[in-house]
Amino acid sequence: MNIPKSVKTYCKKCKKHTEHRLKTFKPGAARAMSKGQRKHLKKTKHGYGGKFKFPIKPKKQTKKPTFIAECPVCHSKRYFVIPKRMKKAEIAAKE
């Protein structure tokens, strides 16, 4: 699905509606020593417990697309999530 490059939405910093530019959101690298990662290592890579097998969960085939909206006036950024699941979402080349 093609999403327009800019969308008019509310800016909390300016306290008015402005035309925000959208960029695709890319998550950063996961922290190596986060609580979940430590818990995972404790379960899997410790002692003589044998091979730990996780229960197989079916993965969801689609995701809700996340973008970063930037205000042109004050340059504040915030998440812009489209609340519909879709397989592919990209920012349109032309408006």
TrEMBL record:
Alphabetized Pfam families for the sequence: Ribosomal_L44
Biological-process GO terms, alphabetical: translation
Molecular function per GO: structural constituent of ribosome
Keyword Zinc-finger: no
Chain coiled-coil ranges: none
Keywords for the protein's UniProt record, in alphabetical order: Ribonucleoprotein, Ribosomal protein
Family indicated by similarity: Belongs to the eukaryotic ribosomal protein eL42 family.
Protein name: 50S ribosomal protein L44e
Annotated source species: Candidatus Iainarchaeum sp
